[in-house]
Amino acid sequence: MANVGLLYVGAVLLVNGLMLLGRVPARSAAVLNLFVGGLQCVTPTVLIIQAGGDGDAILAASGLYLFGFTYLYVGIVNLAGLEPEGIGWFSCFVAVAAVVYAGLSFWRTADPVFGVIWLCWALLWTLFFLVLGLGVEGLTRFTGWVTVLLSMPTCAVPAFLGMTGGYRSDGWLAVLAAVVGVVLVALAALFATRGRRDARVPVPA
User: Is residue 102 one of the residues assigned to a domain?
Assistant: First the structure.
């Protein structure tokens, strides 16, 4: 059930990244954020109820609320035309929590691949904090590209693998995931820099 929610997190991250890049209007993106945010609040609630007091199952489900609250927050703010600073500061909390969940994946649940994925999410929500919470507008394009490029490999791909029984996690796969993450972040920096440079090129009359 958690993998179903993760699949749609990939979709909303893609749309939100395109929103940061100016490709999708904020009010248009808000609707999907509300849908996915609602799903990511209902899913962990059901999982926790079904856990029957199993601490590990409750811990695994608890992280889903970080996404659910983020997307509900984004959807409401965009529809209502509110200021985004609150999302930014909540993203700071999410980023710190993501580092904790990464550590738990590495050392408690023996899932190093998801440890790397949690670290990717920690970076992403840190960027949301910088752009929305602190108003570092110069990072907006970079953040948009990071969001777009990480949306599929950190969400949709592991979700499909989990639903089809193909998900595997070991040290070597974690290293490979980390390398892919670094490459994608580097590509995001390249695309963002190129976009700013192209925007300064005068258009011939």
Answer: yes
